[in-house]
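Exercise 7b. Backbone tokens:
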């Protein structure tokens, strides 16, 4: 809900601060007093395109600030997506300089104008100029019909569409991958054969490097093994014999001293370890030099290093690549069968979607006829008796038009005169007609979704008498559910409002300024009398009767 609006140096408005309330608020005043400036200020703070005409002559800048309160999940999501703190209150601010430059702020944070406009789309529904009228948007017209349907009908279409898109995506991915990988398949097979020959395992590089080092230094290895074996087990005396003598010397007296006991244990452990080394050294001496094996290990090691460098990974990464290529090559081998299966699944999914969409089309057509029938008496009461209205629900057969909400195009159409062709509402309806059509939809219960703030301008164009009372009553009823701002010239409409603000043009210090003032009680009665054509006693009594009638009819 719009809590307050502050306007500075905007056109003829020098400074105005308005405290706004829930329900219906009407703005009245003499012709030319500046009601259009209020509309402009609202548009400015909710993201309308900037105009240098907004800046008051002689001022450096125009500024409009709005304070907004109220929970709105869509609005919260928008703010969070743009890193703007979400609070109980939202402060919107728009500044326009005399050279036409514009700046927008939300809660003190500078934002792009499109963000402010998106906030406006979520908060404000403006009826007056065609470019702001949500009812003229095709998606809103479709939503108007869909809001009266059973949720299950819409869900069936959404589920069927998701299934169809999933299979379609799988088929497209398969064909794309197959086309992209046909050329790669030969390369993958070639690389796979190279890696398979290497018989890759974990830490293969270290194993091969050890084999190569041993082969290249065979003579040194043999000499070192022979010398070590001689010293350990064959020399007179050998290392092991000396250790045995030391153990024999310590054994008789080891129990008499802990140091001797521990030393004996260490000597025995060393002898045991040397005993394990002797057969290892003997095995090394028995190995003969195998030049062919050395050459094979060198080539295998070089090939492994090249593969690791080319694919920038270790042995584990090469094994993963091999597994991936094997799976992809296997998929290519079975692609023909998979494609036939997916084509059959796609056909079944398309049939299921068409059936669900056809049912939705029938439901939309049926509910559209109900809405048109319910609208008729309200259109007649709102001086739109000559307007013939229908909802054209056109089912598209081409699957390029299929969507999650069906394959229909829903368009509101009007016929101005018998025998004339039906035309889209957006192409022919005036602002006043659209405003009254919104009221008619509200009156018959056709509007299930609407912005929390609704602004009506030109709603009373070309009407009067009982029609004006009907407009006022419907606006007041709408105000019981959301905030409604109305600019009106009609005393009937003004009388039905819960709040009234008078727009007045005055002269101050040789300059013309527009002022806005909330009026109550007698002042409001006086303003209604002025709208009736005078401020004498008869007009004041007439105005009092208007206010009494409005309150009585709204209460009823």
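Sequence design result:
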């Amino acid at each position: 809900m719009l809590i307050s609006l502050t306007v500075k140096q905007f056109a003829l408005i020098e400074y105005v601060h308005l405290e706004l309330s829930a329900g219906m608020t009407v703005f009245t005043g003499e012709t030319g007093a500046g009601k259009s400036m209020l509309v402009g200020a609202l548009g400015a703070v909710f993201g309308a395109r900037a105009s240098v005409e907004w800046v008051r002559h002689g001022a450096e800048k125009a500024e409009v600030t709005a304070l907004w309160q109220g929970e709105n999940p869509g609005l919260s999501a928008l703010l969070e997506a743009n890193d703007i703190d979400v609070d109980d209150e939202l402060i919107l601010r728009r500044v326009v300089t005399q050279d036409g430059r514009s700046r927008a702020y939300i809660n003190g944070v500078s934002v792009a104008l499109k963000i402010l406009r998106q906030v406006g789309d979520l908060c404000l529904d403006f009826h007056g100029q065609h470019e702001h009228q949500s009812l003229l948007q095709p998606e809103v017209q479709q939503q108007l019909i869909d809001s009266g349907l059973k949720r299950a009908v819409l869900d069936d279409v959404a589920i069927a569409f998701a299934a169809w898109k999933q299979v379609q995506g799988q088929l497209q991915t398969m064909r794309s991958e197959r086309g992209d990988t046909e050329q790669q398949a030969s390369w993958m097979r070639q690389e796979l054969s190279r890696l398979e020959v290497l018989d890759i395992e974990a830490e293969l590089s270290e194993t091969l490097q050890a084999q190569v080092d041993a082969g290249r230094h065979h003579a040194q290895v043999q000499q070192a093994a022979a010398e070590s074996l001689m010293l350990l087990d064959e020399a007179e005396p050998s290392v092991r014999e000396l250790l045995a003598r030391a153990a024999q010397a310590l054994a008789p007296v080891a129990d008499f001293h802990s140091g001797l006991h521990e030393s004996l244990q260490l000597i025995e452990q060393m002898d045991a370890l040397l005993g394990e080394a002797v057969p290892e050294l003997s095995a090394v001496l028995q190995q003969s030099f195998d030049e062919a094996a050395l050459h094979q290990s060198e080539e295998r090691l070089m090939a492994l290093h090249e593969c690791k460098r080319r694919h920038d990974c270790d042995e584990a990464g090469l094994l993963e690549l091999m597994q991936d290529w094997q799976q992809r090559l296997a998929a290519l081998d079975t692609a023909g069968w998979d494609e036939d299966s997916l084509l059959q699944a796609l056909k079944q999914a398309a049939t299921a979607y068409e059936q669900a969409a056809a049912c939705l089309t029938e439901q939309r057509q049926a509910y559209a006829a109900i809405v048109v029938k319910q609208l008729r008496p309200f259109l007649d009461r709102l001086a739109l008796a000559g307007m013939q209205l229908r909802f054209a629900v056109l089912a598209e057969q081409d699957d390029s038009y299929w969507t999650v909400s069906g394959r229909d195009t829903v368009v509101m159409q009007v016929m101005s005169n018998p025998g004339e062709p039906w035309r889209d509402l957006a192409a022919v309806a005036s602002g006043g007609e659209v405003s009254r059509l919104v009221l008619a939809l509200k009156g018959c219960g056709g509007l299930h979704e609407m912005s929390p703030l609704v602004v009506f301008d030109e709603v009373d164009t070309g009407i009067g008498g009982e029609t004006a009372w009907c407009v006022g009553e419907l606006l007041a009823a709408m105000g019981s559910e959301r905030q409604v701002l109305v600019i009106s010239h009609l005393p009937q409409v003004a009388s039905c409002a819960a709040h009234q603000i008078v727009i007045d043009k005055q002269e101050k210090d040789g300059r013309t300024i527009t002022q806005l003032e909330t009026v109550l009680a007698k002042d409001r009665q006086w303003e209604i009398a002025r709208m009736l054509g005078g401020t004498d006693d008869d007009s004041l009594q007439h105005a009092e009767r208007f206010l009494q009638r409005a309150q009585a009819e709204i209460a009823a």
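Instructor comment: The two ends are 26 Å apart (CA to CA). The CA atoms of residues 208 and 297 lie 6 Å apart.
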